[in-house]
Amino acid sequence: MANDASDLAAGLLRRAEDLIPALRSRSRVAIEAGQIPAETIQDFADAGFFKVLQPARYGGYQLPPQVYCAIARTLAEGCMSSAWVYAVIAVHNWQLALFDDRAAQEVWGGDQAVRISSSYMPVGKVTVVPGGYRLSGRWAFSSGSAHCDWVILGAMVPSAEPGGRPDPRNFLIPRSDYRIVENWDVMGLRATGSNDIVVDDAFVPEHRTIRELDMFNMNCPGHASNTAALYKMPFAQIFNRTVSTTSLGALKRALDVFVETTKEKRATYTGDRLARDTTIQYAVAQVERALDELSLVLDRDCRELMERAIGGDWPVERRAALGASTTGMVDRCVGAIDTLMAFSGAKAVFRGNPVQQAFLDIHTARAHVANNPYPYARNLGAVRFGFDNDSLDI
Question: CA 250 to CA 27: how far, in whole Å?
C-alpha cells in the first residue's frame, strides 16, 4: 500500500512538472483576465490534483501534506496565481473532512469533483435560529471562487450569555446562497480571481458549521467518519502552508531566469560581463541558499506533521515552532526576490518579465495575514519563555 501511495505521488508530481510550460504560456492572458482559465482548472482536475487531500471514501487520494505542498511548489514554477488557486481549493477538500459528515454528503454526494472556495475573515453577521443560523455579510479575498460551487466563510456566533465571548466558526454555503462581486484589481497574484463574496440572510444548518476551537483542539465532528491520521492535524498547520508554499516555486523560476539572462549580459557602459560581478555572484548564491533551506525545512515540517498526526503528540511549543516556520517563509522569499529584482536592470520593469512577476506575486502573498511572521514568531518566543500560547492559528 505504501508503494502504491509513493507511485501515485510520483505520478502527480510528474504531471505538475509537465504542466509548467502550459501554465507559463497562459499566464499573461490569465493576469489580464484576473482569473486563471477554465482550461487550467480542468487540467488540474484531470491530473487529480484536487483529490490529493480529499478523503478516500469520497474518491480522494488521502495523501500526506508533503505531496500537496510539492505539487503547489512545482506548479508555481509555471504560474504562481495558478498554483495558489490549486492550493487553496485543494485544502478545502481536507477541511471538509473535519465537518459533520452530513456536510460532505451534501457537497460530494452527487459529484465528488465539486470544488470549494473560502474567506475566513470573521466578518459575517450571525443570528442563531432553530436548527442553525442566519448568515449575512461581505467577505473579501475568495481565491478561485469563480471555479467553485461552495464557499467556506468565517463569522462569530454571538454568545448566549450576556457579555460572553463570541464563538468563531466557519460556515459552509452553496452557490445558490451567495454571489460573487468582481473587484479583484491588485498588483500581484492578479490571476487568482480573489473576489468578494456576498451573502444575504442565508440559512446555514448546524452541521454545515465548524468551530475554530474544535479545529485547534483536533476534536472535530468529521473525525467520527474520517479516522485517518491525515485529518488529525491542526487546521492552521495545513492552511498556512497553502498560502506560503507557492512563493518557493515562483522564487525558483525567478532565480533560474535571472541566471540564464545574466550569463551573457554585459554592462551598458563598460561592456563587462555581469556574470563576472562578484556582488551578483554572491547575490545568486544567497538566493540559492535561501531556496534550499526553505525547501528543506518545508519538507521536514510536513513529515513532522504527519508523524505527529499518527502519534497524536502535539506539544504546544512544537506547534508554535511549526507555525512560525511556515509564516516566516514568504518574508524570506520577499528578501530574496528583492535581491534579484535589484540586480535585474531596467528591462525588469517591463510587464511580463518573470523576475518582476515573481516580485509582485511574492510581495502580494506576504500581505496575507497568515504570512505575517511577527505574531507567530512573538508567540513562539513567549511560549519558549514559559508564557501561555495565545493563538488558535498554530
Answer: 13
Q: What are the DSSP E strand ranges found in 206-269?
A: 209-211
Separation between Cα atoms, residue 334 and residue 366, nearest integer Å: 8
Give the DSSP per-residue string, 119-167.
EEEEEEEEEEETTEEEEEEEEEEETTGGG-SEEEEEEEEPPSSTTPPPE
Question: For residue 293, what are the CA distances in angstroms to 231, 272, 297, 316, 332?
Answer: 28, 32, 6, 24, 10
For 200, residues 6+ apart whose C-beta sits below 8 A from its C-beta are: 136
Element at 317 (helix H, strand E): helix 316-327
Query: Which pLDDT tens digit goes with each residue over 351-377?
Result: 999 999 999 999 999 999 999 999 999
Within a 13 Å sphere around the CA of 261, how many CA atoms are in the beta-carbon half? 16
Sequence-ordered list of residues with C-beta below 8 angstroms from that of 254, at least 6 positions apart, any chain: 337, 340, 354, 355, 357, 358, 359
Using one digit for the tens of pLDDT, what is the confidence trace for 103-117? 999 999 999 999 999
- Cβ atoms 243, 370 nearer than 8 A: yes
Which has the closest alpha carbon to 298: 258, 240, 351? 240
**Measured distance CA(115)–CA(22) in Å, rounded:** 22
**Whole-number Cα distances in Å, 291 to 153, 279, 329:** 33, 19, 10
| Residue whose C-alpha is closest to residue 309's, from 241, 393, 227, 210 | 227
> Which three cell numbers mark 346?
531596467
How does strand 116-129 pair with strand 132-142? Answer: antiparallel
What is the DSSP secondary-structure string of 45-84?
A: HHHTGGGTTS-GGGT-----HHHHHHHHHHHTTT-HHHHH
- The Cα 119–Cα 153 span in angstroms is 5
- C-alpha cell read off for 17: 512538472
Q: Smallest Cα–Cα separation from 143: which of 105, 94, 174, 186?
A: 186
Distance of alpha carbon 152 from alpha carbon 170, whole angstroms: 6
What secondary structure letter does DSSP report for 261? H
Q: What is the pTM of this model?
A: 0.96
* pLDDT tens readout for residues 146-170: 999 999 999 999 998 888 899 999 9
Number of other residues whose CB lies within 10 A of the CB of residue 165? 9
